[in-house]
Amino acid sequence: MKQRVKEHLCRVYGLGMDDIDELYGIGCQTVGATLSRLEIAFSGEGDAREIADAGHMLKGALFNMGLLELGDLARDMELAGKRGRMEEARAVYARLRPALKFF
């Protein structure tokens, strides 16, 4: 998946590999930090608004990295959080989390 993301970033932004490596690193940091926020929120220390906000951030990072199908799942989680549907958001996160294990 790492190579797929880097190829996407190169194609979309037309940057050299040093810049692509930096951009990829920033994306990975964003996804990792957001996953940490979601873990805390789903452990009971957060609320639906926190899940919606983190889902929104995750969606943007994934779309920017060209991971559209995962970004769609993050959007579903964001919308479930906005609607206060915690169990739905949790179910989407359970599907999304294993696909993001490389972050």
TrEMBL record:
<dbReference type="InterPro" id="IPR036641">
    <property type="entry name" value="HPT_dom_sf"/>
</dbReference>
<dbReference type="GO" id="GO:0004672">
    <property type="term" value="F:protein kinase activity"/>
</dbReference>
<feature type="domain" description="HPt">
    <location>
        <begin position="16"/>
        <end position="103"/>
    </location>
</feature>
<protein>
    <submittedName>
        <fullName>Hpt domain-containing protein</fullName>
    </submittedName>
</protein>
<feature type="modified residue" description="Phosphohistidine">
    <location>
        <position position="56"/>
    </location>
</feature>
<dbReference type="InterPro" id="IPR008207">
    <property type="entry name" value="Sig_transdc_His_kin_Hpt_dom"/>
</dbReference>
<dbReference type="Pfam" id="PF01627">
    <property type="entry name" value="Hpt"/>
</dbReference>
<keyword id="KW-0597">Phosphoprotein</keyword>
<dbReference type="GO" id="GO:0000160">
    <property type="term" value="P:phosphorelay signal transduction system"/>
</dbReference>
